[in-house]
Specification:
single chain, about 200 residues, alpha+beta, hypothetical protein yedk fold, globular
Length: about 200
């Protein structure tokens, strides 16, 4: 599971790349860990209820990585960082309502590999996309006390499977039409974007 990712780009560059209004997000680049705020791109409809009408301008806004657990988890439940089951009752309402889907910009992400390094620590691999230096994870957010987000995951591609990963985050292709589909499209079509990214388009290290 991804427990760190990097976003080595400025707020202005991220907003311009994804066609969003920057707002007041001061992001200057760095590594994101669970429980930290990071920029996400939304469809700009957060305060709009009812049927989909005219698309609002996209917004880049900070959200906390890690959604509060469901009540059944009790007080000891950990924040939920990723979505494994797309049909889970905990997620399906938000996924079907496109205003709760978001793009999570990144320039790389970390996974745990097999074995240990020379210092006896678990092996870490940092992955990036050869075809898009700045890419987007498929994300979903919830409007809890502190609005927060999680990353959607899928089966690993051949590269990540060889490195020891059981899941990988869903990376969206470098296509504005795919970003629009994720942010604005019906769930019947948007769900098709949750799939392994091609191994040949990824770099380790």
């Amino acid at each position: 599971m991804t427990v760190r990712y990097r976003l080595d780009s400025t707020a202005a560059a991220i907003a311009a790349h994804f066609g969003a209004a920057q707002g007041g997000d001061p992001w200057a680049g760095g590594t994101i860990a669970p429980g930290q705020f990071a920029p996400v791109i939304t469809a700009g409809r957060e305060a709009i209820a009812g049927p989909r009408g005219e698309h609002q301008p996209r917004r880049m806004i900070p959200r906390l990585w890690g959604v509060p657990p469901p009540p059944a988890a009790g007080e000891r439940g950990h924040s939920v960082l990723s979505v494994r089951n797309l049909d889970s009752p905990f997620w399906i309402g938000n996924l079907r309502n496109s205003e709760f889907r978001c793009l999570v910009p990144a320039t790389g992400f970390m996974i745990w590999g097999r074995g240990q390094d020379r210092e006896g620590k678990r092996v870490r691999h940092w992955l990036s996309c050869a075809d898009q230096p700045l890419f987007a994870f498929a994300g979903v957010w919830k409007d809890s006390e502190v609005p927060s987000f999680a990353l959607l995951t899928c089966e690993p591609n051949a590269l990540l499977r060889d490195l020891g990963a059981e899941r990988m985050p869903a990376l969206l292709p470098p296509d504005p039409a795919a970003w629009k589909l994720w942010l604005n499209g019906g769930w019947d079509r948007a769900a098709g974007l949750v799939q392994p990214y091609p191994s040949g388009m990824m770099r380790d290290g």
